[in-house]
Design goal:
Rossmann fold, alpha/beta, 15% strand, 17 helices, 370 residues, 2 domains, 6-stranded parallel beta sheet
Length: 370
């Protein structure tokens, strides 16, 4: 008995390498997992793998995790003979990823898809246990390759076509899953200089913004102002947004990027946004009524991500091509000015998703690292 306790206490601290660079949709679940690993094993080391071009350079260091960089590998949407031959660019990225894994003493590699994950999977194959997490119902190429030799495969939704998939949901930040919107509302409105009492629409189009959303919502600024609706609009760091001010009306507040999404959600009564897997999961978790505008390119996964909330009555779905200033006014004003409708839609979102996905996945990762 004593020997068993001693061996458990003496177990060396695991080193976890997370590969999820490029976009916030890959990086945020990786960071949520990292936080959960540290809660469960405070002595664990967590290192992020990324590239010089990805958003991880802005998002990972402020979270307190070391970031190791490898060359990016552009991925085709389908397996090709070039990929099977491992062209020079891929081989170089795999070699550098392997050097990182050896240098940090990786005990497990966790990939979230994208162009950082594929080199990480190939570098770890046969050397370090691999855990794959797939947020979308239609897996990308990297995760389809990685799942073939992963120790565990975790997915966000049922019927994801990966071998031996376990449904865990999407890891979300604790600041989101524990968010008390009502308690933070006044602080959040003050933080963004919004009207403290006006019904407020939160608008964003992913980490880089979305021109179609920017144009449609800013084009409806007068109608929204006349209806007494305030707006918090993240237009993207590479975009500009000029909106006419209407004295005596709730302010329309444009910002390049939302660093405090918890406060943005707390300030809002409704959201109009894209429906990436992470965004759809967060919006449902905080109970915000939504107008989802799926990205019009890709394999249709954003519409699939939005479907559960739409079917539950918590959200509306609008094609990008149909999003005009008139459509924004039509969908938003009648709902934001009807407290009963907002309450009904918020209640429909309660209970959706997997609020403990971060710790469920962390336990899988730590088990794989043994």
């Amino acid at each position: 008995m004593t020997e068993g306790v001693t061996s458990a206490v003496a177990r060396p601290a695991p080193t976890v390498v997370v590969a999820g660079g490029g976009t916030a949709g890959h990086i945020e679940p990786a960071m949520a997992l990292a936080d959960a690993v540290k809660r469960l094993r405070p002595d664990a080391k967590v290192i992020a793998l990324g590239t010089t071009k990805g958003l991880e350079n802005e998002l990972v260091p402020p979270r307190g995790y070391p970031l190791e960089l490898i060359p990016p590998v552009p991925l085709p949407r389908k397996p090709t003979t070039d990929l099977l031959r491992l062209p020079l660019k891929v081989r170089d990225s795999v070699r550098q990823a392997r050097e990182v894994l050896d240098r940090v003493g990786a005990d497990v590699v966790v990939g979230f898809g994208g162009y950082v994950s594929l080199p990480a999977y190939l570098a770890a194959r046969g050397r370090v246990p691999i855990v794959v997490h797939e947020a979308n119902k239609s897996p990308g190429l990297a995760n389809r390759v990685g799942a073939r030799f992963a120790k565990r495969v975790a997915v966000a939704v049922p019927q994801t076509p990966l071998p031996h998939a376990e449904v865990v949901g999407i890891p979300l930040r604790r600041s989101i899953t524990t968010l008390d919107r009502a308690a933070l509302r006044a602080k959040a409105r003050e933080h963004f200089e919004l009207d403290p009492d006006a019904p407020t629409l939160l608008v964003f189009g992913g980490s880089q913004g979305a021109r179609s959303i920017n144009n449609a919502v800013s084009g409806a600024a007068k109608e929204l102002a006349d209806a007494g609706i305030g707006v918090l609009h993240a237009h993207g760091p590479k975009n500009t947004l000029v909106v006419q001010e209407f004295p005596g009306r709730p302010p329309y507040v444009p910002v390049p990027y939302l660093e405090r999404m918890d406060l943005a959600y707390a300030a809002a009564d409704m959201v109009l946004c894209r429906s990436g897997a992470m965004t759809a999961a967060e919006v449902s978790a905080v109970g915000l009524p939504a107008v989802f505008v799926p990205l019009p390119i890709g394999n249709g996964e954003q519409a699939t991500n939005a479907r559960p909330a739409v079917d539950a009555g918590a959200a509306l779905l609008v094609d990008d091509a149909d999003l005009t200033p008139a459509k924004v006014a039509e969908l938003v004003i009648s709902r934001l000015t009807d407290p009963g409708e907002l309450t009904k839609m918020s209640a429909a979102a309660v209970g959706m998703g997997h609020r403990e996905a971060d710790e469920v996945l962390a336990k899988i990762v730590l088990e794989a690292a043994k």
